[in-house]
């Protein structure tokens, strides 16, 4: 399973949201800088945690695929501090990366990490789980994510070791301590966490973490905005669009996506739901005219060409949607 992601320069949230609305992804890192820049060269983390709102922090990963240079930190590692403990979203892509995140958490709070929630069963979400379990944290995932871990984790681990070499030290596959199907609620330190599976989205076992009191959602791979979203063979784009309506109904003020900086619903809608609708509309037209897979590769995606990873995802995404819609 390929895991492709992105980078973002963190600003205070008020400035960040203004930037997101006015400039969107057009000023995101591009070219060689996308793959070689490291904002925290003294750490396994691509970038150190940044405060999003009171009590909520996120270490924003690189936009690029997992590489030796970014130490596998190519997704967002977020955490919420309460008066009774810390909840972390995503275990990290390896043991040492998880430890590096924990080292930063301990600089901010003395509260222990009690829960680690996996946004799905992909490597950058789950391969650091053993570190957190050693610290006494409870690792939680969706039941479909557990299935993905059981089916694919050893191949993902082998690939990660090949890429990260000595940085993969101590990493091993473990299962989450708890799973759920539709919803799990955690109340800790006066904060309500709702772990929700709203339906099919990017990959099996995708969940979101909703903090209703803060009007903030840690969306995982439900939502993208500063990199082109990838479509896998198992991604059902029609179902993802339907699931999106439940996600939008939360009416979140703040969104921490799986990749890229904190933003709002307008931006993630533009680059997730609207992009999926665009692809499906274009493929429907092609199929009505008897178009071919080659025609699908050539549809005009220039409106999204500024997004990091579009250079190797745009055609693949178009092909995936065309082939799936042939049999709908």
Integer-rounded radius of gyration: 19 Å
Subunit organisation of the chains: single chain
General shape: globular
Beta content: 15-25%
Structural class: alpha/beta
Number of domains: 1
Number of helices: 10
CATH architecture: 4-Layer Sandwich
Which ranges are low-confidence, i.e. pLDDT below 50, for 5 or more consecutive residues? 1-35
Brief description of this entry?
The protein has ten helices and twelve strands.
Question: What do these coordinates show?
Answer:
This protein is of the alpha/beta class and 328 residues long. It has one domain (13-325): Metallo-beta-lactamase, Chain A (4-Layer Sandwich). 36% of the residues lie in helices and 17% in strands. It is built from 10 helices and 12 strands. The protein has helices at 13-23, 33-36, 95-108, 123-126, 129-134, 143-164, 237-248, 265-288, 293-297, 310-325; strands at 50-53, 56-59, 77-82, 85-89, 113-117, 138-142, 178-180, 183-188, 191-196, 208-211, 216-220, 254-257. Strands 1-2-3-4-5-6-7 form a 7-stranded mixed beta sheet. Strands 8-9-10-11-12 form a 5-stranded mixed beta sheet, with no helix packed on it. A hairpin with a 2-residue loop joins β8 (183-188) and β9 (191-196). α8 (265-288) packs across α10 (310-325). It is globular, with a radius of gyration of 19 Å. It starts with 12 loop residues before the first helix and ends with a helix. Residues 1-35 have low confidence and may be disordered.
Task: Sum up the structure in keywords.
single chain, 328 residues, alpha/beta, Metallo-beta-lactamase, Chain A, seven-stranded mixed beta sheet, five-stranded mixed beta sheet, 10 helices, 12 strands, 36% helix, globular, disordered N terminus
